[in-house]
Amino acid sequence: MLQTADDWRPTASLDALKLRATLLTRIRAYFGGQGVLEVDTPVLSSAGATDPAIHSFTTTYHGPVPGAGNGSELKLYLHTSPEFPMKRLLAAGSGSIYQLCKVFRDGESGGSHNPEFTLLEWYRTGFDHFDLMDDVQRLLRTVLDGTRSVEPVDHWTYRDLFLEVTGMDPFTAAVKDMQAVLQGHGLHDPVGLTPDDRDAWLDVVMTHVIEPRLGPGLVFIRDYPASQAALARLRPGQPAVAARFEVYLGGMELANGYHELTDAAELQRRFEKDSTRRDAQGSEAVAMDQKLLAALASELPDCAGVALGIERLLMIASQSASIEDVIAFPLARA
Amino acid sequence: MASYNTNEFRGGLKIMIDGDPCSIIENEFVKPGKGQAFNRVKIRNLKTGRVIERTYKSGESVEAADVMDTDLQFLYSDGEFWHFMDTETYDQHAADATAVGDAVKWLKEQDTCEITLWNGTPLVVTPPNFVILTVTDTDPGVRGDTSGGGGKPATLETGAVVRVPLFIEIGDALKIDTRTGEYVARARD
Fold this sequence. Notes:
The complex is a heterodimer. By secondary structure, chain A is of the alpha+beta class.
């Protein structure tokens, strides 16, 4: 890496660092006021994220492992989100919980990505994703007070948003229809994308055509295709949709939430599907989290959960163009 | 054949697109939290100068363009080609009118230019930021008027026409900023 005389300095201004401290204080105050418990789960886990689009860092522990004899070596994953252990706490009867922690994702660095970033993740028992979207809105109003407006607030279904912006129904469109939409916006087909990866083509339309037109306010998008459900439950219908939502502010993706899947057998199937896709794309196999499966088999209470990127929130609050403006020491200076 | 992975994308990297050598101007990493990662790049086609946009699925490999920038001395023009020489190796390169482009207005024999070579052939000629050129034609000078107010056109030895102060006369050597095409000062001998 190129070294310069200024490499030791933070890339964020002192004002940005103060804003970070202020927002974190406000977030804790918000949840404290709501009776949501702050928790702490391991950064290092024996199981990793199976999501085919997310790549975990791994490390190896050398030494005694309780219950496993001496001299053991243990492969450990740095968490990409605290989702799995937080759900185990929920299954153990914690009630509503939140966590502020650093998470780690390999391969992600750019204007709005850093491989290590801060996630605010919270779960509310008895909430569905509609209740949780309201909660996100209340939290953002409180936390961003005096920095930036969240108005106007818009709600869209994934389907209606695509229809409105592109005239294309994302549930029935073929890849060639998506190519036509891209062409209509002066965009070429992405290099390396194959026609069988339909969701990736939808991602291109979303990121290249729709996101730039979302406007300055808070936008909630819900009812994602079942193929993009991740760990959200499905809502029956024609077609069935995922009870999943994304939150955008100022046109930037800020948070992703679910009315949580609580069915252990369905979770097992999704893990297996992820693992088949990882295999097909040549990604490393990831150990399924058996403890999460066991927790769901025991009983995960009806709940909704969401993860929100704190650096993105800071970028929005401070109107920064780059994530480097809100992190003291991003990858290039870490 | 040399190639680059999208992870290596950065401003200035030279890659091949549709058979043409291009230079990356801007590289943006795009990734939905739950979706496919892409590199969205702004690129200048070095043959046409046009700026285009492309998106690559992250992790793809792209053919590298054999493009290098080198300093060469301008020797002469034969009307069809502009001939340049590497003053260390004495290698000569002939640039056509497309490669020379607007630089033709500022090319003076023995000046050193930056030449972008693609597979050894000049693709782009960039003149020095500042050149000294002699005035070959302009209205008579107004002596003593150094106010800088007003101005008049002056034709230079290369044929370029620039706006100069009123006191400039035929035969004066002028320092010109080639990036703006503006007069900077009279050159002192």
